[in-house]
Amino acid sequence: MNPAEPDPVPLPEWCQLVRAANPGPMTLEGTNTYVLATTRGNIIVDPGPLIEEHLCAVSGLGPVLFTVLTHHHLDHTEGAAWFHEVTGAPVRAQDPSLCIDGDPLAPDGAYLDTPDLQLRLIHTPGHTADSICLEITRGTWRGLLSGDTLLGRGTTVVAHPDGQLGAYLESLAKLRAVLGPDHVLLPAHGPVRASAAAVVEQYIAHRQARLDEVRAARMAGAQTARQVVEIVYSDVDPSLWPAAERTVAAALDYLDAAG
Ligand SMILES: [Zn+2]
Question: What is the full DSSP assignment across 204-218?
Fold first, then answer.
């Protein structure tokens, strides 16, 4: 195993990770679909892409109570309509246009109606405007389903202009306030991590460092997002530069708004 990879974190038996076969630079090993077993059926978080083998593997785990989408990106939502047709279970999301036979998720801090475990909604705009996280509590076990707001490794893209860096930084601060030392991180891409709080701290430090670099690149004469990327992301594989350019555009927007 790559020494840089964190050790796999065991999940409780009622929580299963089913990974879709859609690996890529943005999706890492693929989209993680989470299946939370309850006495009234499974709760599905992000059915993932429209890959029938994956959706059948998820629906084959038992009757579905409802499905939740963490945000609108296709690698999380593309399979939702097919999955709804097969399972008959409502699909819920922050954005009403993504809901199928279910109500939009609102308001911030609300508990979803679930048996056996608590699911608390945390609005975390930034990666996209409609991004949410869900805090899970079951007995003494606590976790954070983070969608793409926090990933199992690397950092997330603030997908400008739908994603906003100011909102993202506020969302990280909100998560910092909510998370205790024992919240397990259940990200939509990459491995499960033992401490969501530790990942939030890394993300905040990383964003501040990148902002400092963007400021410095500007002082050095870079004007466009592309020029900033060529300086700041010179250590990153160029295949990721288009995504970095969106993140830098969000940073420039943020710095301009901050004056
Ligand atoms: Zn994703």
Answer: HHHHHHHHHHHHHHH
What separation in Å is there between the alpha carbon of 42 and the centre of ligand 1? 22
pLDDT digits (tens, 9 = 90+) for 24-55: 988 999 999 999 999 999 999 999 999 999 99
Which CATH number goes with the domain that contains 27?
A: 3.60.15.10
Query: Which pTM value belongs to this model?
Result: 0.92
189 CA distance to ligand 1 centroid (A)?
7
- Cα(225)–Cα(250) distance, integer angstroms: 9
Structurally, the chain folds into a number of domains equal to: 1
SS3 content of the chain, % helix, strand, coil (to 5): 35, 20, 45
The Å distance, Cα 149 to ligand 1 centre, comes to: 9
All residues at 6 or more sequence positions from 43 whose CB lies less than 8 Å from its CB, including other chains:
35, 36, 64, 65, 66, 67, 68, 114, 119
Per-chain mean pLDDT for the chain: 94
| C-beta neighbour count of 197 within 10 angstroms | 18
- Full residue range of the structural domain in which residue 78 is found: 15-195
